Amino acid sequence: MTNESVTPGSELKIIDVEKLEPAQLEKAREIASSIDVSDSQSVIQYGVGAQSRISEFSDNILSKVRSKDAGYVGETLTDLGMKVKSLKIEKLGQSSFFSGIPFVGGLVSSIKKFMSRYEKVSTQIEKIVGELEKSRMELIKDITMLDTLYEKNLEYLTELDLFIAAGQIKLEELREEILPKMQKEVEQSDDASEAQKFRDFVQMADRFEKKLHDLKLSRTISIQTAPQLRLIQNNDQLLVEKIQSSILNTIPLWKNQVVIALSIFRQKNALEMQKNVTKTTNDLLSKNSEMLKDSSVETARESEKGIVEIDTLKKVNDDLISTIEETISIQKEGRIKRQQAESELSKIENELKMKLKLVDQTR
């Protein structure tokens, strides 16, 4: 099929008849021989069947494209990505649960909170994956359907090409054989009806040419449909691959990363606990060592001391001597005072006796 130049009085031959397969060429000539240009209904209905199938086919494709919501798949994939990111694996253990609560208790609490959040997100993701799986199956069906449509479009195009080739053959026959012959007969005849018949036939030939042009337009639509079908099919295949990648790669990878993150988190906290245990052990050993040192030194000092210290004995001795001296001094002082008292008593007694004697004498 090639394009040929337009010459005066001829149409653009988009089908190279000479390059048709023998079977197709025979079929085109058979169709051309059945064309009755003088019959207006025959001209109007020429190729309508193939043309209608092309039109219905285009409408069918349009309805199928409209019925598919590719945006839904994109939104679902986006939602899947957001759900995966919402878990925020990288923030596991970043909260300050170490302060104010026991270490182990904080570790368990953090993991429980994370796992609770993971289970919620995981459930949501499983639902999304289910929707994506349904969409994937629908897209696979569409891909198969588009293959069928492509083959149908090729079939319709082949059929339409036969009608166009037959029309070109017939039109060439009209212009090069039938019309020149009729024109010659009209010129040789004085019959006005023959002239009118010739003009009517020329008009019908022009209408047939226009009808052939309509078929060529339908052919262009069919030709344009082929890459459109492949484009839609390619987009569906890309979506299927994206969905499969999400289901088979993204989700398992995400789950693996959760396991790895939890393992690293547990390792980190186990290491932290081990550091605390080591520090506590070292502190305990250091304190015990200090206590042992102090106790040993004190014990050694005490063991080297006597039962009673010399200083104590000296003090006791000094206190004893001082006590004895004070006692002797007190006793001596008491003796002197007693002697003085006795002397005073004797003096008082003598004075009393003298007074009594004077009293007796005065009687």
TrEMBL record:
One matching Pfam family: TelA
Coiled-coil stretches noted in the UniProt entry, renumbered to this chain: 331-358
Keyword terms: Coiled coil
Highest taxon above the source species: Bacteria
Family according to the record: Belongs to the TelA family.
PANTHER family hit by this protein: TELA-LIKE PROTEIN SAOUHSC_01408
Protein name (database record): Toxic anion resistance protein
Organism of this sequence: Marinilabilia rubra
